Amino acid sequence: MKLQVDREKCVGHARCEAIAPGVFATDEIEGRVILITDSVPRELEQAALRGAKACPERAIRVFANEVAEQPVWPAERLRR
Amino acid sequence: MAESRSIDALAPVPDHVPRELVYHFNHWRASTDVSDPYAAFAELDRKGVPKIFYSTANGGHWVVRHYALVHEIFNDHQNFGTYPSFIPPNPDTLPMIPMQIDPPDHGRYKRLLGPLFSPAAARRLEQAIAKTVDELLQPLERKTSCEFLGEYAQRFPQLVFLRLMGMPVEKAAEFVEWAKDFLTGTVSEKMEAKAKIVQFIDEFVEQRGIKPGEDWTSLLVTAVTEEGSSALNRREVLNICYMLFLAGLDTVTNAHAHIWRYLAEHAEVQEDLRRNVAKIPLAIEELLRLFAITNNSRRARHDMDFHGLKLKAGDAVLLIVAAANRDSEQFARPFDAVLDREHNVHLTFGAGIHRCLGSNIARTELRISLEQWLKRVPAFRRGPEEVLGLGGVTIGLKSLPLEWGAAR
């Protein structure tokens, strides 16, 4: 799994860090998201996806692997 | 954040507003003196009120209540400004920093204040918050009932505020009285209370300027720019302190009110959380979604076309987050408490650059508060008295009698 964050979209809700603290952190000045690792270890994949989904700004994109072009999140309009 | 009063008189409809979009909706009254303060919002859908409509209450304003639109406006500070934005208009107030300051000035304040509110900063406050919860719970442990707002939920954020700012906690009793008058008093009591609070803060800011400590007031007073000059003048410090006081006050109180009421009415959920403490954070998140607190507002910064409608510069727009959070386009089972809801992107703390700065602290306050309650107070239930809502800038309850221990 590979992650990509858009720090322009991020406004520091910090939900990603709350849900997946091993994957996401926030910087101390602006509170924006930082990736602890952009290649997610398998055991943290589920948490990473939940963390991405918790972002109200959709600032985190999740790809199945290094070469995937279409993200698995956000997919086009998803509800749950 | 109760600064103004509602106006129910019919405001004139401006020429640019299509007549078929006019509907009288007073959000101050909609949640007040009814047992479910959220019922009126769903009622709008049942009555077929248009997605974007123009209310003739409170001086006249647009109303937006669907998730996608509310989210869009929160994120569009080019078109929608935060000051002046009170509904009804309140010409007497200065813009509150940073809540009612838009770019380019917003960034400077946000960078200065951000570090105080980061997740790490909230973690550092856990001890002080736990201490406050402990102090308030001690007298309650010896009782079998309480009026939850007056005996706990109002005092808690006030004490946390005093502690964070480094203000003398011995002042607390007096301060709590002022805050109470300010939130629930008559117009003249409100004005008087506000003056006392501002004076108290102002004197304290001056003291800390002379003899700084480790508290937030001192941090603000002594903050410097990269060039080494003073980052905030006295007026700015006073403004920020007052904003911090207001923003964390009835918001945190009301969030407590709705969550504790829900748990008092749902014994099985309460027991589940009592046994499974790890479920508390997500459960709080879901109850925050279900019971949004603030009715936010914005003002059109210039004439524009908005989803096919003409908006004129100065038009006020009410964003009903409580309705957006229950929008079936965004949330499955929107009216149910799904306590482990995964994709819970509620807007209770807003979105965009003006998202609630205090959200990490508020969440920490709620979590510690609920953990300790469930640990130290046995199964609690509603008292026999009626519970009524109180609407306005925030949505709360007038009172919440709780009972525990032996059945009455």
Fold and architecture overview:
- The complex is a heterodimer of chains A (80) and B (408).
- By secondary structure, chain A is of the alpha+beta class.
- Helices cover 18% and strands 18% of the residues of chain A.
- Chain A is built from 2 helices and 4 strands.
- Chain A has helices at 15-19, 45-53; strands at 2-5, 24-26, 33-35, 60-63.
- In chain A, the strands form 2 sheets. A two-stranded antiparallel sheet of chain A has the order 1-4. A two-stranded antiparallel sheet of chain A has the order 2-3.
- In chain A, strand 2 and strand 3 (33-35) form a beta hairpin.
- Chain A is globular and about 35 Å long.
- Chain A starts with a strand and ends in a 17-residue tail after the last strand.
- Chain B is globular and about 60 Å long.
- By secondary structure, chain B is α+β, with helices and mostly antiparallel strands.
- In chain B, strand 10 (389-390) and strand 11 form a beta hairpin.
- Chain B has a 5-stranded mixed beta sheet with strand order 1-2-8-5-3. In chain B, strands 4-12-9 form a 3-stranded antiparallel beta sheet. Chain B has a two-stranded antiparallel sheet with strand order 6-7.
- Chain B has helices spanning 27-30, 39-46, 67-74, 105-117, 119-124, 126-141, 148-153, 155-165, 172-184, 187-210, 216-222, 234-247, 250-265, 267-275, 280-290, 321-324, 359-376, and strands spanning 52-55, 61-64, 80-81, 145-147, 295-300, 304-306, 309-311, 316-320, 380-382, 389-390, 396-397, 401-404.
- In chain B, helix 6 packs parallel to helix 17 (359-376) and helix 8 (155-165) packs across helix 9.
- Helix content of chain B is 46%, strand content 10%.
- The interface between A and B is medium-sized, with 22 and 30 residues.
